[in-house]
Amino acid sequence: MTTSTTPSQAVVVIVNPLGGTLKHYTDGVTAALRGDGHHVVVESIFEPCVAGGTALAWLGRYVRALLRARRTARQADGRVLVTWPVLGHLDRPLVRAALGRHTPADIVMHDPEPLVHARGYTRLARYVASLIRSVSVVAHSAAATRILERHCPNTPLTQLPHPVLPRRIAESQDDQNAMPVVRVLGQFKPDRDVHMLRDLATKIDNDVRLEIVGRGWPAVAGWQVEDTYVSEERLDELMATADAVLVPYRRFFQSGIAFRALELGTPAVGPLDSSMAELYTHDQFLASDCVDSWAAAVAAAIETSPSDVNDIATNLGASAQSDWGTWARGAKRTAARTDHKPTI
C-alpha cells in the first residue's frame, strides 16, 4: 500500500486479534481516527471461540497479521496499534520481533489485572516485557493507568478515551409504550454483584421489568434471567429498547457495555467508585455500595430522555476523536483530557 499524507495526517494499521469480540471497539477506533483525517487499515483475525481451532493456531494467525501490518506500515510510514494483547505483557517483545525495530507500535491493555485467568500477567512476564521500551501501551481509564504505572514503570504509557459511536436504532411503538425495562447484559463472571441485584429487585417498583440476558447466569430473585449467547445485533436491540442498562461489577477497568448503551441513547448505571465516573460530570447514574443508591440511580436513568443521553455520547465521541487524532500525530500523553466532559 502506498499512501500520500500531509504532515497533519497519519497512517495507522490496526491489528485486532479478537475479530468477533472487539469488532465494535475496532470500528470505534477506526471512526475516531478517520474522523480526524487519518488513514486506517484494519487487520482482523478471529479468536478460537469464533473461528474454531486451537489457541496455538490463533497465535499463528496473530503473528501473520502482525507481519502483514509491518509491510503496510513500512510502505506508508505508519504505525501499528494492537487492540488486545494475546499474550498479555509478553505481546511487547512479540510485537517488536514481528514488526522489526523501526515501526512504531502500541498495544491497548484493557485489563491490566484480568478478572479471569490470562497468560502473560505474572511478575516474570512484566520483567521480560520491561526490556522492550519501544512498544507503547494504551489504557482507557485512570484506574488502569495507575496499575500500569505501578507494574510497568519504564514503559511508555498513554491514556486515551474509549471510542464512542453515537447511533440510534428505531424503536417500535409497542416498545415506546411498554413498561420501563432495566437490563443487565453480558456473560456472567464471578465479579458480578449478584447479591446487590437481589436486594435491588426489592427496591424497584413493580411496574419496572428487570431482565438479565447473557451466558452462564444463575437464577437471581426478582429478575427474569435468560441464560443465552447474545449476538451483536441482538445486543444492540436489547440496549436500545431498555430504559437503563446496569453494570453490576464489583471491579472493572472499563465497560464496553456502558459505552455501547450510551451510544444508543440508553443510560448506563454503575458503581460510583469505578471508571464509569469518568463518563459523567454528575453522579445521578452512579451508585455507592448502598442498595438505595442503586435504586435512585436506576430511577434517574428511567426518567432521563434519550436525547439527553445522546448529548453525552456526542460529547464523548468528539473528545475521543480529538484525543485519538492527537495520538495518531505522535503526541504521547499519560493523563486523560478533562476539557471535553459531557453535561446534561
Low-confidence stretches: 331-344
CATH class division of the largest domain: Alpha Beta
Order of helices and strands: EHEHHEHEHEHEHEHEEHEHEEHH
Task: Provide the spatial order of strands within the biggest beta sheet.
Answer: 2-1-3-4-5-6
Indicate the percent of residues in helices. Answer: 25-40%
Largest sheet: 6 strands, parallel
Number of strand segments:
12
Mind telling me the C-alpha Rg? Answer: 20 Å
* Straight-line N-to-C gap: 44 Å
CATH fold description of the largest domain: Rossmann fold
| Mean pLDDT score | 88
Question: Helix count, per DSSP?
Answer: 12
What is the count of distinct domains? 2
Task: Please identify, by name, the CATH architecture of the largest domain.
Answer: 3-Layer(aba) Sandwich
Proportion of strand residues: 5-15%
Outline: globular
Question: What class do helices, strands and sheet pairing give?
Answer: alpha/beta
The CATH homologous superfamily of the largest domain is termed Glycogen Phosphorylase B
Please supply descriptive tags for the structure shown above:
about 350 residues, Rossmann fold, 12 strands, about 40% helix
